[in-house]
Design goal:
The complex is a heterodimer.
Chain A: E1 5-9, H1 13-24, E2 29-32, H2 55-67, E3 72-75, E4 78-87, E5 90-97, E6 107-118, E7 123-124, E8 141-143, H3 144-150, E9 172-179, H4 194-208, E10 213-218, H5 227-238, E11 241-244, E12 249-253, E13 258-265, E14 270-276, E15 278-283, E16 285-286, E17 320-322, H6 332-350, E18 359-360, H7 370-374, E19 380-382, E20 388-390, H8 400-404, E21 410-411, H9 417-429, E22 437-442, H10 446-457, E23 465-470, H11 478-487, E24 491-496, H12 507-524, E25 532-536, H13 542-559
Parallel strand pairs in A: 1-2, 1-6, 2-3, 6-17, 8-15, 9-10, 9-15, 10-11, 22-23, 22-24, 24-25
Antiparallel strand pairs in A: 4-5, 5-6, 7-16, 12-13, 13-14, 18-21, 19-20
Helix pairs in contact in A: 1-2, 1-6, 4-5, 10-13
Chain B: E1 4-6, H1 10-14, H2 18-24, H3 32-36, H4 46-55, H5 58-62, H6 66-69, H7 75-79, H8 86-99, H9 105-114
Classes of the chains: A alpha/beta, B mainly alpha.
């Protein structure tokens, strides 16, 4: 296996945690951070939940420990400018390292990375886009991130919780939740961390100021798990007034230097109004723009959400994992957890045990590149010799490349064309009264369902069915189906996972596309295209599998025997 | 009836004793007390009454007909998941309301029963 470093993109709490753990495990790491300092957004917090300790303490430990290792490099003011894969199992990453000296040219670094952990964090939503709250226009309207700096000694007020513009005392503070979040005009999702941030800041205010009163304008307070306990604590200890309803407007009254909020309390169905010294906007997170990574799976919002629940760090490019807020909006604690998950995945790759991986017959291959395009993990690449190459450490043995190869030159040992030939030959030698059906079963979901079915019905009603298990339904090559039909089998059925549940993401949908193309070929050959079908079965749907088989058999009986028989 | 409640007007709030105000703050408006109240004929129910306290709208709280339809069964207290003594708050408000000059409770009672 090719040797290289592990590149961690982002020096926030997730990136630092990942880099430090890998370095401690003896792995050579390079950490690239865009800004001139480490610690990211956490470094700019006053306290973090739930222990209410200063975040610097935790960050210092990580940075100190990381800089101790000679096999760990830290690059500040460095951005990724290119990611390429030319050797199986290795990424060639170009980094641009700027200098703090403005007269100096930016330096270009090239790193051979065996894996990349994306911990690039997230950006905060631009609160000035919500015009009615007047952020950036009205004095005294700040974001929750700016609120944190009100309590920090190096903040604009020198750590004194006073009005950030006038320097006057704070008596009444309003917090507005879901600023842009859960709003189809802005961010349709819930960032999930902002409610706890507001509760934390209510605690800051009440702890440091005696005559302070706080109001929270919210839609729903979302504090799952242990955070509920914290919500209850803040609610009972500091008694902020919760107004269920988001303000329609924020106005500035110059005579009294106060902000006037208008809202509806949807619990009492009454209009409410109030004047405040400070209005804090709890903004959500937006995914980072990482333009140099290709083929990475993102969710509908643009976060690198991974293949949840089974492989949360997995981004469908072997050797690239996500951690922290670039995965989904999360708090510091969850960022650390996700960093540890990415580290685990990374170590698994580095210590990967040999597995079954496809053999490529370069004599037959015409270098069409279809396998490279279709591989769900980016494990199959065009090697330096111009032929496809697979890195065993990256391959998940799904066989999708084998299923797509137009020239049948890819063979997944144990599941390839030879095995199918044997199965078809055996099926043809045995004669059964009804239609003979070749049934391909996906090894993850459908094969276990089939086994259960066979034991349940004791083989009755399954006469003439020739089962064949494949690692993924995407591993079935259309040429096999063609061969089976020409040899005289009456029908071929593909039973895979449901398209949105496929363990290899694209297997079932690729099989569907390939089958559609095959149906055209079949009709040209004057074979009924109905002789092939695809169905989605989950692991517990044995009864449905039987139903589908019976339906298909009835259809085949109607069509009559295969004309090639 | 107050059209718009000023939630930061502390003058109104001072009429209520701090204990009532503070205990009412823990109510999460789940509505269990309102659902359990046998005297509930029309609005406001105990849930809505507690909400008015939370918002600091004393005028409306003290004019609430519920104060005089309450039969003191304490079903609301028994139902509360936050262990808030709702019935006690209602009793306190009733006492407070009786002392208010502009509150004519028998009149409200008659109106209410006729309605």
């Amino acid at each position: 296996m090719a040797k290289g470093k592990i590149l961690v993109v982002g020096g926030g709490i997730a990136g630092l945690t990942a880099a430090e753990k890998l370095a401690r495990a003896g792995v050579a790491v390079a950490l690239a951070e865009k800004s001139p300092y480490l610690g990211g957004r956490v470094a700019r917090l006053h306290r973090y939940y739930p222990r209410m300790c200063p975040p610097r303490c935790g960050l210092e430990v990580l940075i100190k420990s990381l800089s101790r290792f000679s096999h760990a490099e830290i690059h500040l003011i460095t951005e990724v400018t290119g990611v390429q894969r030319s050797i199986p199992g290795l990424y060639t990453v170009t980094l641009q390292k700027k200098s703090t000296d403005l007269n100096q040219q930016a330096e270009e670094l090239v790193i051979d990375a065996q894996g990349i952990i994306i911990a690039a964090g997230a950006d905060l939503y631009n609160a000035s886009l919500i015009k009615e709250y007047g952020y950036g226009r009205l004095p005294g309207v700040i974001t929750s991130m700016e609120m944190e700096s009100l309590f920090r000694p190096e903040g604009p007020t020198g750590g004194l919780p006073v009005h950030p513009v006038t320097g006057g005392p704070l008596r009444r503070v309003a917090f507005i939740q879901c600023v842009g979040s859960r709003n189809k005009n802005h961010l349709p999702y819930c960032s999930g961390y902002c409610c706890t941030v507001t509760l934390k800041q209510v605690q800051y205010l009440h702890q440091s100021l005696k005559d302070i009163r706080t109001w929270i304008f919210y839609q729903d307070i979302r504090t799952p798990g242990s955070k509920e306990e914290y919500y209850r604590h803040v609610r009972e200890e500091y008694r902020p007034v919760f107004i269920r309803g988001l303000p329609s407007s924020v106005e500035f009254k110059a005579d009294s230097n106060e902000l006037l909020l208008k809202s509806e309390d949807t619990l009492s169905k009454k209009r409410v109004t109030g004047s405040f010294d400070l209005v804090v906007l709890a903004t959500g997170m937006v995914p980072p723009a990482l333009t140099h990574f290709y083929g990475i799976e993102k969710d509908t919002f643009g976060f690198f959400s991974g293949h949840t629940p089974c492989e949360p760090s997995e981004l469908r490019r072997s050797g690239i994992w996500a951690a922290g807020c670039s995965q989904s909006p999360m708090d510091a604690g969850d960022s650390v957890k996700s960093a540890l998950a990415a580290v685990t995945q990374c170590l698994v790759k580095l210590q990967q045990q040999p597995s079954v991986y496809p053999e490529i017959n370069t004599k037959k291959c015409d270098r069409c590149g279809r396998c490279v395009k279709e591989c769900a993990y980016g494990a199959c690449i065009m090697g330096s010799d111009g032929y496809p190459a697979v890195d065993p450490g990256d391959c998940r043995s799904c066989g999708i490349c084998q299923g797509g190869c137009p020239l049948l030159c890819i063979n997944l040992p144990g599941y390839g064309g030879k095995k199918i030939e044997e199965i078809v030959d055996r099926a043809l030698s045995e004669s059964s009264p009804g239609p003979s059906i070749l049934l391909f079963l996906c090894g993850n979901d459908t094969y276990p369902a089939w086994i259960k079915l066979v034991t349940q019905v004791n083989g009755r009603g399954l006469e003439g069915i020739i089962p064949c298990s494949v690692p993924c339904i995407g591993a079935v090559n259309a040429a096999w189906i063609n061969e089976a039909l020409i040899s005289g089998l009456d029908g071929v059925m593909l039973a895979g996972c449901h398209p949105d549940q496929c363990h290899h993401a694209v297997g079932t949908s690729l099989a569907a596309t390939r089958l559609e193309n095959l149906k055209e070929t079949l009709s040209r050959m004057r074979l009924e295209p109905e002789r092939v079908c695809l169905t989605g079965i989950t692991i517990d749907e044995s009864a449905k599998l039987l139903e589908e088989i019976e339906k298909f058999r009835t259809l085949l009986e109607k069509l009559g025997p295969n004309p090639f028989k | 009836m107050v059209q718009v409640i000023n939630i930061t007007d502390s003058k109104e709030l001072r009429v209520l004793d701090p204990v009532t105000l503070n205990t009412a703050a823990i109510c999460e408006q789940c509505g269990k007390c309102g659902a359990a109240c046998p005297a509930l004929i029309k609005q406001p129910n105990p849930t809505a009454l507690i909400r008015l306290i939370q918002l600091g709208s004393v005028t409306e709280t003290l004019h609430s007909p519920l104060l005089w339809t309450c039969i003191g069964c304490e079903q609301c207290t028994a139902a509360c998941p936050q262990k808030l003594d709702v019935a006690h708050i209602v009793r306190l408000l009733r006492r407070l309301s009786a002392g208010e000059k502009d509150v004519c409770f028998p009149g409200i009672m008659v109106d209410f029963l006729l309605a």
